[in-house]
Amino acid sequence: MRALYTAGVFGAAVVGLNFVFNRETREGGIPVYEREYLHESFMYTGLGVATIGFAAKALHNMGWSYKLMSMNPTMVMIVGVVGGIGTMMATFACPPENYIAKHTLWSSFNLMQAATLAPVFFYHPALIARAGLYTIALMGGISFIGATAKTDQYLWLGEFTIINYIHF
Is 168:96 a contact under the CB 8 Å cutoff? Predict the structure, then answer.
C-alpha cells in the first residue's frame, strides 16, 4: 500500500511539474535555444544526482565506506577535494565536440562525488536523498525563474553548475 501511495505522489508531482514547466508565459514564448538549454540542464542535473546517489549506495554496499573510513581521514579529504575539483575542471576544459571524453569526465566527476559521499550512509542514509532533492529543487527554481521571466533579464547571471558547462 505504501508503494502505491509513493507511486501516486511521484506521478502527481511529475504531471504537476510538467504542467508548470511546459507552459508559455513569455510574450511570444521561450526561444528554442533557451528551451533546449533548460531541458539539457535539467536532464544532466537529474542524471548526475541519480548517478551520485546510486553509485554512493553501491559503493557503501560493497564495503567502500568501511575501507574509506579506516584510512587516514586527512588523506581521504585531500584526495576527495583534489579528485572532485580536478575532474570538474577537466570536464570544463574538454571541448564539447569530443563527446565521449566529455561524458567520461562528467561520469568520473559524479563517481568521485559518490565515492566521497558513500560514508554518509553510516550516519543517516536519508541525507544523500535530501541533498539530491535540494539540489534538484534549487536548480529547478533558478531555471523556472529564468524560463518564466518576461524577457531574458536573468540570463546575465550566467552558468552556475558543472552541468551547464557540458553543452552537448
Answer: yes
pLDDT band for 162, please (50, 70, 90 cuts): very low
Domain ranges within the chain, ordered by starting residue: 32-165
Residue 142 · residue 135 · CB < 8 Å: no
Q: What's the grid cell of residue 6?
A: 509513493
Nine-digit cell string for 117? 559521499
Q: What is the pLDDT of residues 47-74, one digit of tens each?
A: 888 898 889 889 889 988 888 878 887 8
Alpha carbons 153 and 160: distance in angstroms, whole number? 16
* Cα separations in angstroms, 21 against 42, 56, 80, 140: 11, 30, 36, 9
User: Which cell numbers in the block locate residue 60?
Assistant: 557503501
- The three cell numbers of residue 67 are 575501507
74 Cβ partners below 8 Å, 6+ apart?
A: none
Residue 155 has pLDDT above 80, yes or no: no
C-alpha to C-alpha distance for 140 and 120, rounded to whole angstroms: 25
Contact indicator for 166, 91 with CB cutoff of 8 Å: yes
pTM comes to 0.67
